[in-house]
User: Fold this.
Amino acid sequence: MRNYAILFPAEFKRFWTIGMIIFAVVMIGLGLIPSVVMMQSGMVKTLSALVSSADQIVSFFTFIVFSAGIVGADIKSGWIRTLLIRSVTRQQYIVTKIAVVFAAQVVVFVLTVTIALVIVAFDPAVIVKFDLSASSIAMALKSAQILLMIVISAYVSCIVQGAFNSLFVYGCMVLSQMMDFLVMRKYWDIHWAVVLKDYIFPTGFEDAQHALAANMAFPLTEMMWGIAALFLFFAAALFAMNKVVVDSGSE
Assistant:
């Protein structure tokens, strides 16, 4: 735990380069504009709806940039060798990298929602219902889905150097959404097509959030699939990290 307490702040500070700070500010701005407009127009009336709208605008774009080269970039630069020399284990390293990217995602997301609420607080015509229970569940499930995406990205980054890991994960997400669209529109009666969609990219937490938002029965199956995928890819990331050839990076 002592290594984590030292490594996390150091990596979190190292993560926030000038470029990352500028990108985060831009994404917060891009998330604020439609969120505030939708609240002022009455399209978004609850905190849970604001959480969902902000997530759709901010989270996936920040994920692509924040998780790009999460491990591969450090291998290429040789930074990981510097850490491993200082009694940091490979497991501590990759867990910290995942935690840093996840924390950065949460910071940007929370700032977007908070600033949007502060802005509309000065408009007496806008009334936002604070459905804390629903919004907390939505936030937890969306955060879990983002964490799953980061873990998968970390696993891919152990295999592929550079920034292609996040693009690969994003491509799988798009392919899964396309498959979902085809299943709903045309192949809903083909069992293998329904199952294949979940194996292209695991969206258990996201599906659970949609089910709860639609007031459906408790999505136990979706939740279990999300949890299983999270632990599976986390184990895969730890295994892949142990197989990384550190000396292949440049000096």
Q: What stands out?
A: The two ends are 29 Å apart (CA to CA). The chain has one domain: 2-245. The mean pLDDT is 86. The chain is about 80% helix and 0% strand.
